[in-house]
Design goal:
Blueprint (H helix, E strand, L loop, with lengths): L1 H13 L1 H21 L14 H12 L9 E7 L9 H15 L4 E5 L13 E8 L8 H16 L3 E6 L11 H17 L2 H29 L3 H31 L4 H28 L7 H32 L20 H16 L3 H11 L1 H16 L7 E2 L11 H13 L7 E6 L6 H13 L4 E4 L3 E2 L5 E8 L6 H21 L2 E5 L1 H35 L3 H26 L15 E2 L2 H29 L4 H28 L7 H33 L8 H6 L8 H9 L3 H11 L1
Parallel strand pairs: 5-11
Antiparallel strand pairs: 1-3, 1-4, 2-3, 6-9, 6-10, 7-9, 8-9
């Protein structure tokens, strides 16, 4: 591996014009594809195998033309103080609004509140239900404008009017704080390298990689039914790993220059050693993201595969374009320890240079912060280990109170009309009105379909926590009916979930008596089934992803205990991160600081999503940090000294990489969409815990305690495993024997 990448790096350095042209051409091609592709509609949300999805599919078969997946809106009216909606003037205003809404080109139906009994008991609140023939995200701007104009006219007449539903749903806009994250990354890179040129390389290559990845996703969004969150996730992860991977190669390049090698040789060795770590770190991230397919939710699978594709692009750019750009930079990228003009003082005299050389030699002999920290840890490994584990364990405690759900209009900011409509409906009709359950009765196999439907309706009316059961609506054949059930609790509550399970349990008994199938669907039931499906898939997914990555790390480190320690450390960091998410988004700690206006259940996909993404990112730091330790150990250093050596070479760069990744993820906390905000916070805090507590403290402490045993591998397994040479031992052998790796690599790769 190292020898091949060494040759690849040198080839990219020499053929820099060709390599740069290829990547610029790919960026242009992807950009043209994105610009010319049709705009993406709404991403379909399906959960194969769940009862809610089966009921939804049945509705499309038995009620053709009903636009079951069409957009909806609830126009909620509230009378002025002291008046009622049934007053003549207010009633006339509502009826006029209903008529205007009915004239819309995409409108299927509008329910008059006075005919549909959609007026609250006290007569102060009413609502009109609007159904559209296309999904909410696909509505024309004219339809949205007509909806808003109708509401505004009713406001002008003196009523309070708010609009809920998905008809006003639009693609969330990117937050300006994402730019702040990139700016913080730029500052960290400048401080790390002391040069604008060296700092700009990782940023430039990461932006090119993300540009290609997101453009390809945009170009394929309509054809592959990709939602807006897919490109956001790809951008989030692509930026973070793209900067980090380039950072590690540029840092190793400067270290090789500092050892006196020429620039082409330094590029080759940096790509062969740090590049090998980049390849395996990228593989762990790809495994974790593609593994989301295990959940069998198309939306999650697409998000994972798209983000994995962006990671692959980041790896390829780090291995080819970074060496090419280093060739363009030439002497503007200084050896490690030598300051550029930015942090230096411009041109220097010969005497200044001599003084600087003496100072550099003195600084080289002085232990850096990474060395001092590692020396402290290996002297007191048990204390550091216990402190780190107890600290993360304490942070993980809130995770024991984890409640899962999916965001609805109730989680929107109070400044939005959707949230105000939600609150008005709760005030007028009860909290459960915002989460109605649709019960579908398939009585085709029953001898008396209508009797079976009546029995179902009567059974549901007798259930606890049920407020309203509407009369059944039959299809044309009369063998299938829908019943709307209103629970007495809000959609995301445990009580509503209990109602869904109670209806399904009752349906099992009814089927035995009448042969009629009872299915529960609707947005609330779909969310409940989605959460359950994610919970059921968490353990298999964890076994698959951690198992594959464990085998990969055995291959990289040629050890059993080091990968095991890496996996256990990851579990600690992800549990602590989940605890922080619960404390902030569910309990409301520091909610104002992070701009969270409404607390509630944690998003259902958060645990499995964090397990996948955080595991991949955590293994990045494990690979980059521990490969340096293994490199020192393989070359004859004692285990504890190898730990210190690894920190001397890698701690500064890993710290910078972690800060950059935290900054990039934190930038998404400012997003308007609650799901993106929660993902950004969760990933940022997880990287903080994993990089600075697990990898920087627990890992060296464990390795110091294990000593030689850390690198133990059964002899039979050692013989069976291929030698991937992440440490670059093959490069040393080639140099010692005088083998011409340069010409061999040029000839072999030129043919490719």
């Amino acid at each position: 591996m190292a020898t091949f990448l060494y040759k690849l790096g040198r080839l990219a350095f020499r053929r820099r014009h060709f390599v740069a042209l290829i990547w610029v051409a790919l960026l242009a091609l992807a950009g043209v594809g994105a610009a010319s592709a049709p705009s993406a509609g709404s991403s379909s949300f399906s959960i194969p195998g769940t009862e809610a999805q089966k009921a939804f599919d049945l509705l499309e078969q038995r009620f053709p033309g009903s636009s079951a997946d069409g957009g909806t809106a609830r126009v909620v009216f509230k009378a002025p103080d002291g008046e009622k909606m049934t007053d003549a003037a207010n009633k006339a205003t509502v009826e006029k609004t209903v008529k205007e809404l009915s004239d819309g080109s995409e409108v299927v139906s509008v329910a008059d509140p006075f005919k549909a009994h959609a007026v609250s008991k006290d007569g102060t609140i009413a609502y009109a239900s609007v159904r559209y023939e296309v999904p909410g995200m696909e509505l024309k701007d004219a339809s949205r404008e007509a909806l808003e104009d109708a509401g505004q006219q009713a406001r002008d007449a003196g009523l309070t009017v708010e609009i809920g539903g998905d008809a006003l749903q639009t693609t969330p806009e990117a937050a300006s704080s994402e730019i702040i994250g990139i700016a913080v990354a730029a500052v960290v890179l400048v401080i790390t390298f002391g040069s604008l040129i060296a700092a700009g390389l990782p940023l430039l290559t990461a932006l090119i990689g993300v540009g290609i990845g997101v453009s390809v996703i945009t170009a394929l969004a309509n054809a592959l039914d990709l939602g807006s969150t897919t490109s956001t996730l790809a951008m989030m992860i692509g930026l973070a790993v793209g900067i980090d991977y380039a950072l590690f190669i540029v840092s190793r390049y400067r270290a090789e220059l500092a050892e006196g090698r020429d620039r082409e040789e330094s590029v080759g060795r940096a790509t062969g050693t740090a590049g090998s770590a980049v390849v395996f770190a990228g593989l762990t991230v790809v495994i974790a993201l593609v593994g989301l397919a295990v959940v069998n939710v198309p939306m999650l699978t697409k998000m994972g595969v798209a983000a994995a594709g962006t990671v692959v692009i980041a790896v390829l750019i780090a291995l080819t374009m970074v060496p090419a750009l280093l060739g363009y930079a030439g002497r503007k990228v200084k050896p490690a320890g030598e300051k550029g003009k930015l942090l230096g003082r411009g041109k220097k005299t010969a005497a200044d240079k001599a003084d600087n050389a003496k100072a550099d030699k003195a600084n080289a002999d002085k232990p850096n912060m990474g060395t001092r920290w590692a020396s402290f840890v290996v002297r007191r490994p048990l204390a550091v280990l216990l402190l780190g584990v107890l600290g993360l364990g304490t942070a993980a405690l809130p995770a024991t109170s984890l409640e899962l759900g999916l965001p609805d209009d109730g989680s929107q900011p109070t400044s939005t009309t959707q949230r105000r409509a939600y609150d008005l409906l709760s005030e007028g009709f009860g909290p459960g009105f915002n989460g109605p359950l649709m019960v579908v009765v398939d009585a085709r196999a029953s001898d008396a379909p209508k009797n079976a439907v009546t029995e179902v309706s009567d059974e549901i009316k007798g259930l606890k926590d049920v407020v309203t059961v509407t009369p059944p609506t039959y299809n044309k054949a009369g063998d299938t009916a829908t019943i709307t059930v209103i629970p007495d609790s809000k959609p995301s509550s445990v009580s509503t979930e209990d109602v869904v399970h109670s209806i399904r349990d009752a349906g099992t008994e009814i089927k035995a008596d009448t042969d009629a199938k009872v299915l529960v669907t609707g947005t609330t039931a779909m969310n409940i089934d989605f959460s359950q499906k994610l919970n059921d898939a968490l353990v298999p997914y964890l076994i698959l992803v951690v198992g594959l990555a464990f085998l990969l790390l055995i291959l990289v480190f040629r050890s059993i205990l080091v990968p095991l320690k890496a996996a256990l450390g990851f579990l600690l960091s992800v549990l602590a991160a989940l605890g922080a998410v619960v404390a902030v988004f569910q309990w409301g700690w520091l909610a104002d600081l992070f701009g969270i206006q409404e607390t509630g259940p944690v998003m259902s996909m958060m645990p499995i999503f964090m397990v996948g993404v955080v595991f991949g990112l955590a293994m990045d730091y494990e690979v980059f940090l521990v490969t340096r330790m293994r490199e020192a150990y393989v070359h004859g250093e004692r285990p504890t000294q190898a730990v210190v050596t690894g920190f001397r070479h890698s701690a500064r760069v890993v710290t910078a990489a972690a800060i950059i990744m935290i900054a990039v993820f934190s930038g998404f906390i400012g997003a308007s969409e609650s799901m993106v905000k929660m993902i950004g916070f969760g990933l940022a805090i997880a990287v903080l815990f994993d990089a600075f507590v697990v990898r920087m403290a627990i890992v060296p402490a464990v390795l110091a305690l294990l000593g030689e045993k850390a690198w133990w591998l059964p002899k039979w397994l050692d013989r069976a495993l291929p030698n991937v040479d992440v440490e670059g031992e093959g490069l040393r052998t080639d140099a010692e024997t005088g083998k011409d790796t340069d010409s061999d690599g040029d000839r072999a790769l030129a043919r490719v």
